[in-house]
């Protein structure tokens, strides 16, 4: 009974460390990837830097942090954030970079401000790729967080260390299986979110017959297919459809249905 309560305490500590590190990594990596989108050279440098940081062994990184921040949760969270930056930053950057140029042409044609372009069109389009990076980072964080027990941060790694110290394979298996199960649960949950069919509330997609022309600008007679941002399961109260008129001087107008 006491062992079960210890397991729940360790599980709570593990979740706390992992979620804090994941949130901090998302807050750093996603805006950074958006900012470097127009700056290809800076983006390549940052991708190389985050890649190099991932090659540092976990124990070495924890040992390097101890003289500066001591032991406990702080060095553990810093180390986990460092390892989570690459997949989130890389997937966000790639997801935004791979958006069809025709979308951006449509955004400019309708005079959308930059923040609306990001919120209503580009980020929803890149969201499955971004969530894929967060999913990879989550599994990596949960697995690596077991090493936090070495510096007094607690977590499921305490069972693994206790099993090694006492030569008790049962304790080691409890810590390892609990950590793996936690990673699988979070991975499965994010996979479900990733597969949702996100629709943009004010996004547009040129039809296949006019996509080539749309890359050079909105041309007469081209049509724009409807997209909305919210998941397909939740009914959108308002939808927009936009079409280009036959006159080159006229502007497309939204029609509420």
What does this entry look like structurally?
The chain is 65% helix and 6% strand. The protein contains nine helices and four strands. A four-stranded antiparallel sheet has the order 1-2-3-4. The longest helix has 34 residues, at 2-35. Mean pLDDT is 78; it is low at 200-257.
Q: Tell me about the largest β-sheet.
A: 4 strands, antiparallel
Query: N-to-C terminal Cα separation, in Å?
Result: 60 Å
Number of helices: 9
Rg on CA atoms, Å = 23 Å
Beta-strand percentage? 5-15%
Give me a quick take on this structure.
By secondary structure, this protein is mainly alpha-helical. Helix content is 65%, strand content 6%. A 4-stranded antiparallel beta sheet has the order 1-2-3-4.
List keywords for this structure.
mainly alpha, four-stranded antiparallel β-sheet, 9 helices
Layout of secondary structure:
Blueprint: H1 2-35, H2 40-54, H3 58-69, H4 73-97, H5 101-109, H6 114-144, H7 157-165, H8 169-195, E1 203-206, H9 211-214, E2 223-227, E3 240-243, E4 255-256
Antiparallel strand pairs: 1-2, 2-3, 3-4
Helix pairs in contact: 1-4, 1-6, 2-4, 3-4, 4-6, 6-8, 7-8
């Amino acid at each position: 009974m006491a062992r079960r309560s210890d397991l729940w305490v360790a599980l709570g500590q593990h979740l706390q460390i992992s979620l804090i590190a994941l949130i901090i990594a998302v807050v750093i990596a996603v805006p950074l990837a958006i900012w470097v989108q127009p700056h290809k050279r800076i983006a390549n440098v940052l991708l190389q830097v985050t890649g190099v940081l991932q090659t540092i062994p976990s124990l070495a990184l924890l040992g390097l942090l101890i003289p500066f921040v001591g032991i406990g949760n702080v060095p553990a969270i810093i180390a986990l954030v460092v390892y989570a930056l690459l997949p989130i930053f890389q997937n966000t950057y790639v997801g935004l970079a791979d958006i069809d140029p025709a979308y951006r042409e449509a955004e400019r044609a309708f005079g959308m401000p930059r923040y609306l372009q990001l919120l209503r069109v580009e980020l929803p389009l890149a969201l499955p790729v971004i969530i894929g990076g967060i999913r990879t980072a989550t599994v990596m964080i949960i697995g690596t967080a077991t090493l936090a027990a070495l510096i007094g941060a607690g977590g499921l790694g305490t069972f693994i260390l206790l099993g090694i110290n006492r030569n008790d394979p049962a304790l080691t298996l409890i810590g390892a299986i609990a950590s793996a199960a936690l990673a699988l649960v979070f991975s499965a949950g994010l996979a479900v979110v990733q597969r949702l069919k996100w629709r943009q509330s004010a996004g547009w997609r040129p039809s296949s017959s006019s996509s080539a022309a749309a890359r050079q600008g909105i041309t007469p007679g081209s049509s724009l297919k409807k997209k909305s941002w919210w998941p397909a399961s939740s009914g959108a109260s308002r939808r927009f459809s936009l079409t280009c008129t036959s006159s080159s001087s006229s502007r497309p107008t939204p029609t509420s249905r």
